[in-house]
Amino acid sequence: MSELAGGGNAGPESELLSRISAVAVTHYSGPLPPPEILERLERLYPGAAKLIIDDVLTESAKRQETETRILPHVLFRQTLGAVSASALGMLGMSGGIWLAHEGRSMIGLVSVLGTLATLLAVFLNQSRKAD
After folding, report:
1. pTM surpassing 0.85?
2. Residues contacting 99, CB < 8 A, separation 6+
3. Residue 50 belongs to what domain range?
4. DSSP states of 30-82
5. Which residue, of 25, 99, 115, 118, has the fewest CB within 10 Å?
6. What are phi and psi of 121, to 5 degrees?
7. What CA–CA distance (Å, rounded) separates 21 from 48?
8. How many distinct structural domains can be found in the chain?
9. Whole-angstrom Cα distance, residue 97 to residue 107?
10. pLDDT tens digits for 76-110?
11. At what angle are helices 105-130 and 48-101 packed, to 10 degrees?
12. pLDDT, mean of residues 25-49
């Protein structure tokens, strides 16, 4: 270590240190690289920037078309799920109330509370997924 600090003998460690060069890492996010990188690519390979930009525009148009086609189906499934859950919840609640009215109050209470617990669990699970 004294060789490195004091500049004494030129050993393998000082030779290694003289060969170390700086490395810069560039990170970007998004569909297009920064303009500086596009400019460098254009100098190395004329037409590269246009190819990259055209590819990004084509991919964006395809993604928008796919989203436009899929969105109505997604909305329909969500609506169908909400309507089905509401119908099943009302069926469970009304069944529990009917059982309680018919003199089976414990079974009716369990039916009502079970339905409420199930609906609450589904709601909380969906809320957690949205976050």
Report:
1. no
2. 105, 107, 108, 111
3. 2-130
4. SSS--HHHHHHHHHHSTTHHHHHHHHHHHHHHHHHHHHHHHHHHHHHHHHHHH
5. 25
6. -65, -40
7. 29
8. 1
9. 10
10. 998 998 898 889 888 988 888 888 888 888 888 89
11. 170
12. 87
Residue type, 86: S
The residue behind tokens 């700086």 is 22
Radius of gyration of the chain (CA): 33
Q: Which candidate, 88, 118, 85, 120, places its Cα nearest to that of 110? A: 118
Nearest-angstrom CA–CA distance, 73 and 126 = 19
d(CA 98, CA 105): 9
Structural contact between residues 35 and 29, judged by C-beta atoms closer than 8 angstroms: no
C-alpha distance from residue 81 to each of 5, 62, 89, 121 (Å): 72, 29, 12, 15
Question: Residue 68 has which token pair?
Answer: 């436009």
Question: What six digits make up the tokens of 10?
Answer: 């030129």
